[in-house]
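Moderator note: this is an archived Q&A kept for reference. The question asked for a predicted structure of one protein chain; the sequence and the answer are reproduced below.
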Amino acid sequence: MYQHIIDQFIQQELLPDAYRQDISRWYLPLVAELHALRQHTAPATLLVGINGAQGTGKSTLAKLLVQLLRSRNQHAVQLSIDDFYLSKPQRAQLGQQVHPLLATRGVPGTHDVQRLLQTLQALSGAGADADTVLPGFDKASDDTMAPAQCRKVRGPVDIIILEGWFIGVQPQAAADLQEPLNTLEQTEDKDGLWRRYVNAQLGGDYKQVFARMHKLIMLQAPGFEQVLEWRSLQEQKLRQSTRSNGGMDANQIGRFIQHFERLTRHCLQTLPPRANIVFELNQQHQVVNRTDHAAVQTR
């Protein structure tokens, strides 16, 4: 029943044929599980989180799950934590008032978390004829999209797939923040103000989002060293899909990744035992193992 959807998806997303094996072996059973879980959470909307370092394929998986779930008559919607970045002026203000590194999007503290919570509530509580506007972010302009450019979803949603690189992670211990981790922290966050601020945000409103999740899925990279290579491939794919010569070069990507290194390593170390499902990836992006933890609590 899925063959046409899968064929079209592989073509549109420029995916290698090997991705079909992951779909067949790992992701189709996951679709069946989410479909069944939805029956237990109804009438509440099922919220599924997907965590994965940059380049692991979390947005691709989220998109695939939505398409396959819709084919099973589930009203499913994909959201990314990236959709809820603060605007460029708002981040510039943060950079002036708190720390210059907060002007760069990505880390906890650079999102409008209250708007994310409001959107989750609106999607689950909308009337049959009500439209919910889903915020969007234009990475090319590094700013939020105008409402007229954003997606709209009508009526209540059965399943929300929320993906992001630090979804579900808990704050680090204060002692772990004392020493700088990379060149960026050594030169631009010598006193640790930026990393302490970011860590504090994880213990704030983000916890409310993570607490709403019925299931947390992790795409586990082999290690942080692989993330830089995958992020570079991601940038190349973006240029191919947009037929653009823009984007970041190798040095820019290297510096950009350092903003995420601390929490990415923290996720890789602490999240696998806490996620409900962990898909372990090899260096070729293929899933080689699945591990399950903790019974899912319905609401």
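Archived answer notes: The chain has a mean pLDDT of 90.
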